[in-house]
Amino acid sequence: MEVTPELAELLGVYVGDGSMSRSDNSTQMTIAAGREEKAWIEHVVAVFEKVFQYRPRFYWSVNVYKVTTRIKNICNFFQEMGFPVGRKASTVRVPTTIMETNDMAIRKAFLRGYFDADGCMSFEKGFHVKNSKFKRTHHYYPRIAMASVSRDLIYLDIKFLLESINFRCRIHDDKPRGKTKRTTYVLVLKGSQQFERWMLEIGSSNPVHLTKYQVWKKFEFCPTRTTLAQRLAMLSSELDPEFFYENGKWT
Known about the structure:
By secondary structure, the protein is an alpha+beta fold.
């Protein structure tokens, strides 16, 4: 199959939120998304349909939205891309076809899909005494993070893709805090310049991320720990973002 930007984005989504399981002599592929991500998972379904000319099942189950299919050729395709049946979290890698392409549009589409599935957008205060009062009291400094328990995915693959398009990133290890937990490898991009460039060149199809960017763009800060509904209300001027800083409501 020809690797198009749509397929690359779908592969990125799968690396972050996809899985395959086998039962009753058949294989099922699943992509899962959180409670606030209905609009994004509908976008994923549309991309899936464009790539495979087949619309997968989409439903709500046990606090997540799921996209599933048992179509044999589709499941086989994802296996040929290097994704196993069964657990993949600690071993998942970017497909070779993405790593070896020189088409930057393909690499960026993959990164967009992976970020939308497994990334995080947040904003920090500036605690240095030389910072203005606004910066010390508001979440103005943007941060993009992508995390995985697959060390090779973060240290070798995602880092390589980002550096190939001239992004600067740092990686740190979050050590396990319990006996059964694993180390998480976290890749971070910081600062308004890289943040703006990410949204311009790579972007996002996930309203959970998009609304954070839009609030930051409109107000020059974005309160932390807000819901999608609250951010939509801020953007429509139904909610003043300063509400979250009154009387120490938000930290």
